[in-house]
């Protein structure tokens, strides 16, 4: 109970009533002040009618065109930083282009040269090899972890979800440098551990398989948690009653996973696969730093990826910028083809 | 909804769009062209690493009243792409630009990007190491770079490890061990025996680097810039000398973690040191190893690794004053000052005879008279011709092939095949 000005006590409800009433009254007052009440007797003055038609025009413009204005910022930025560089790169790829010198139009020569370029195919094989080594175990592990985190009995869920995402926050360069140390030939942790089980030290960057393994371990470490969270979100969107019904029918946990979780998760899974594909095709920093910053990626290009080859041709070698641009477009087309393949898979599964 | 609020919204949206477009437009051209002959208020100098110009430009500012802005980039690897961008877009470059050996050679292929310094400065052609001066000229005869420093070679060695393995430790006796590369290999084998099988040098690419530059003939290109990597006797000699050292090598690639860690661990007892490398050796070895390193002469006498020039980009608005500043920074007095401040080795003949330079000793390296050692080594460097893509051939064809052989990934014949094949693609321009 609160005392009012006269000392009389008011019930709290009455006080609330008054507080709610006053703003409404204010609004009503302000409305009546700005818009004159229509008088049925007098016809609208010409001034008012012109104002009204102008209002209608503005209204029309607003409805028709303002949506374009709202989305314009995105398209302006996309045009400047997305579309223009792509078109420009395509234009460059049709030239013999020296970054700081002359350029001449040569049509599709760069692309035909690409087809017979041994090092381009080498980079393509490396990229797909590392991609397979990093994506397949990663997604399986992510699926397993997501399923674990989705269990109802798990305590401290938020903690685990955050913890699993932590590696993704660490900068790539730091990851690559630390892993580079772990995979050192002389003083590296992994060779030291291998020594305990009687395995000779491995020259990690000296062979294809070992360098691929080392690089994909960095990628796995960094992205497993990220994919786990996306898969977990997908799992939580699956209606609970499906599981209840299955449980009543006597389906085991395992069977529920295979016959409910996995099929229902397919669209999320495809999404994760597409993201991993794009990331895998553009792999650059990890292999570069793993090879001490050498752009050719290993003494015999054991782990030079497509993105590194593009950088070597387009940026490091000043006089082959046009060829580098052709490599860039080749990467773009490869990603497009792989994504299209994934898209067709989704469409089939949706039917 | 009242018309008023709608109109306000429309106005707000329009305003937002105009701001966005205006913001983009504001990124446009804001250059103000100076009147011809006007004295610049400020000149910009771009360098990488440490050139030791901080104090020198203060004197220049006092003398001329022109302000100098020093823009430093720590690593050459970050510096080069910036410079390439400035040249490719035609704007943003400094008035005076430091050009490292590798960069200079590839930029020479397009000399139009650089001002011809010959008409802008006095004739200094007789004042510098002749070969260094010649390298500053483009194929079309333009003078595009004034010499700054040189990466004259010496050998850094660990006295304590030498002693433990039964080798002499005095720098003159050590230099006497290896008058030529054969002697160096023998000393390495002796060390290996005395130390129970430890490696003597860091890598065989360090050896090839040393041999390449002391031969005074065409390397990967002939004088007409045809690629002759597979037939050049100088390259073959460097290849043979380097591959012969594989049994005393620690197989630690320069700049790799194995290599940096090796200084502290004592994985190798000797490495090739251009003068600018001394700071890197002491940093990698740490304060605990102070006084354990010393500096001796390089086998075969002379040798060079790195070194720079100062050039003036064609896009500079004040080419005349910029050239004068470059001239000032590369003068004998400035080169001695820079050496005392940060260690880049002079190329000016007068500076090389300077007492302050010759009497300089390095405390970390057992007080070795580095001024004298490097000064003597500089005089022995032979003039060489470096082709346009020299750096790319060396780094992306020769050295990977040598490392592949060193690590047992390829035998000698296969590795040579790899080199000659890659040299053709890397060397094309």
What features would you describe in this structure?
The complex is a heterodimer of chains A (351) and B (429). By secondary structure, chain A is mainly alpha-helical. Helices cover 73% and strands 3% of the residues of chain A. Chain A has helices at 12-34, 46-93, 109-115, 118-149, 157-169, 172-182, 189-196, 208-236, 240-248, 253-281, 285-290, 306-316, 321-350; strands at 2-3, 9-10, 95-97, 103-105. In chain A, the strands form 2 sheets. Chain A has a two-stranded antiparallel sheet. In chain A, strands 3-4 form a two-stranded antiparallel ribbon. In chain A, helix 5 runs antiparallel to helix 8 (208-236), helix 8 crosses helix 10 (253-281) and helix 10 (253-281) packs antiparallel against helix 13 (321-350). The longest helix of chain A is centred in the N-terminal third of the chain and has 48 residues, at 46-93. By secondary structure, chain B is an alpha+beta fold. In chain B, strands 1, 2, 3, 4, 5, 6, 7 and 8 form an 8-stranded mixed sheet that branches. The relative contact order of chain B is 0.16. Classes of the chains: A mainly alpha (351), B alpha+beta (429). The interface between A and B is large, with 42 and 52 residues.
Q: How far apart lie the N and C ends of chain B?
A: 68 Å
Strand fraction of chain A: under 5%
Total strands of chain A:
4
Radius of gyration of chain B: 25 Å
Main β-sheet description of chain B: 8 strands, mixed
Principal-axes geometry of chain A comes out as flat
SSE run of chain B:
HEHEHEHHEHHHHHHEHEEHHEHHHHH
Fraction of residues of chain B in helices? Answer: 40-55%
Taking pLDDT < 50 over at least 5 consecutive residues as the criterion, the unreliable ranges of chain A are 1-39
Mean pLDDT metric of chain A = 84
Specify the structural class of chain A.
mainly alpha
Number of helices of chain A: 13
SSE order of chain A, as H and E? EEHHEEHHHHHHHHHHH
